Amino acid sequence: MKKLLSIVLALCLALALAAPAMADGTVKIGMVTDVGGINDNSFNQFAWAGLQELAAEDPTFVVNYLESKTDADYQTNINTFIDEEYDLIICVGYMLADATRDAALDNPEQKFAIVDDASNADLENVACLTFAQEQCSYLVGLVAGYMTQSKTVGYVQGMVSDSMNLFGVGFISGVLEACPDAAVLQYNANNFGDIAGGATAAKDMITKGADVIYQAAGGTGIGVLNTCEEEKIWGIGVDADQAAVLGLNYVLCSALKNTGAGCVSIAKAVKAGEFAGGVHHYTLSDGAIDIATTGDHIPAEVLEKVEAAKAAIIAGEMTVPTSVDDCPLFTLDD
Amino acid sequence: MKTKKGLMDFLSENTFIHILFSIILGFVVGAAFLAVMGLSVGAAYGKLIDSVTSLKGFSYVVVYSVPYIVTGLSVAFSFKTGVFNIGAEGQFVVGSMAAAVVSILLPDLPKPVLIPLCFLTAMAAGALWGSIVAMLKVKWGINEVLSMIMFNWIAFYLSNFIAGIPAIHNTGSAEATKNISENASLKLSKEFIKSAGLATTANWGILVAIAVMLIVWFIIEKTTLGYELKAVGSNRYAAEYGGINVGGSILTALAISGALGGLAGALQLMGMGQRISIFSSQEGFGFAGIVVALIGCSNPFGVFIAGLFYGALIYGGSKLNLVGAPTQLISVIVGTVVFFIAISVIFRYLKYLKKTPKAPAAGSGKEAAKK
Fold first, then answer.
1. A200 and A317 both lie in a single domain
2. CB atoms closer than 10 angstroms to residue A122
3. For A199-243, how does the pLDDT look when each residue is reduced to its tens digit (9 = 90+)?
4. What pTM does this model have?
5. Which residues of chain B does A73 touch, with a Cβ-Cβ cutoff of 8 Å?
6. B273 CB near a chain A CB, below 8 Å?
7. Are A220 and A158 in contact (CB under 8 A)?
8. Domain with A217 in it: what CATH number?
9. Tell me, which fold does domain B61-324 have in CATH?
10. Does B280 lie at the interface with A, CB-CB under 8 angstroms?
């Protein structure tokens, strides 16, 4: 028994010694997911993928993540990274806004970044990473407007909030630009994880004549895309290149929103000593926002118009509306 | 042959040793998984032990354990009385939502009024949830396991529905209820937490859990009610023959069990969460209660220790990523532990068959009593 114990202790010691000592100059970046988890096919996953690439390119970055299983885990996970003395803590998603605020106020020296939230912009130690989701939504809206035969398109949103409404405003503006007399069926699922609910909403829209449906609704949106696949009408992906990720044949295109790009740039800023709080807004010009056309379902003449619009937005020649007031057809907020 | 029988006897007779044995096996299997994946066992288990043994770490373990202890007691109470409360999940959800609604609608009540009121409404909601199922069982003989699983989902969607009502829904962008009133929060003051070096989420929910543990023990061991419930649990027909109202006992048992499930929800809300998010999947506190009750042998004190153990695994496990090990390791360990505890029933049954060759006769006697 004693012998066994001594072997175990010796092993522990050996392991402790073998652990690589942190070389000076390492920058430790910790990421806290929301309850969607790390493999959510959405912002958590991209943020983590971006950070992993960064660490692979530049070994001075040490990246790690903690998953939140319930709402109550946010504070614990943030505090774990604080206790482990991470240089930057990236909180993914506006669900963490309150927990981030509490932690940032309690630890003014600790640097934070939060994805998709601007409510902490008043704090000096919190960088709010926001994305111009209306721009990519506008581009896929153009595609939908040009491609619809029935002049009826559908739109499913995960929840009504200022940030989420941008998806709808951009999409509807794009549709109307391409097809001024189109009808846009809209549905607020009030849930990001309800696959069955998404499928029902899509079926309902299809019976009402929709032949292209866009969704900005996380897991609920997966239900929408699956139904589009079954009914052989066009669905439009969001966040990721969902035609490629989900392997579906009826995903016309996807509105890309790469949260990883934002996380990487703020991580680099921390390393360079240039971290700043406040809102950091990412757009088409940074490449964090884009449109994916995997599957080549879009005819060349439509693609040309989309590329032209993209160039015009980047050049600043045109702006996509960002307010529900500029888009009277958007009705989910009423 | 002789040693084999000896080990089996030893394990089947000494529950504590058997459970300890199962837990060790759980960690051994976990270590095997780590080794197969090419990860360092020492680093992973070192991190696990490291993160729960400091004062701060232990205080996290305590706050994480509270809901598991109380749902564990809820399930254990139902086990004692021969019903299987798999509905603690739903009772937890309706309990926490009831407490949330009360504290959001009556935010200005003073702390000593609001906190007990939240507890009571949560317990009432949980008890109601348990009683409906019990009524279905007693009146129409509907299997409680099936209806409870369905009631878990009713609770799930009901909670999501209530969280979406404008008076309850968060005014910010979060998909959640409003935060509960400060007066309903069980959190310790920030200054105290800082000076004592405790977890930032430290709260006094554990005191309630201890009180509940003592009350459950008292009801089961020291009251007529407890005696009746246990009698129904060990043999329904004998109890009925002995003049105990079986239907009434099942109803009472599930109502109390449900009340505990609801209370667990309130404790989690008022101690930790401070709000209820719109669920996209079940959070699993009630299901964890089944595991905790099993590990704790349905003994109130055992459940308390098992709840702490489970809380330690969950909290310590959440940090495994930091050393490159998957957090799912915890599920492997817990699953293995439950597996080995569950097969103790088989050990006992084998021994029972060996010792009492006339076992089938006893069975037919029972059948006769039924008629």
1. yes
2. 11
3. 999 999 999 999 999 999 988 999 999 999 999 999 999 988 888
4. 0.84
5. 318
6. yes
7. yes
8. 3.40.50.2300
9. ABC transporter involved in vitamin B12 uptake, BtuC (1.10.3470)
10. yes
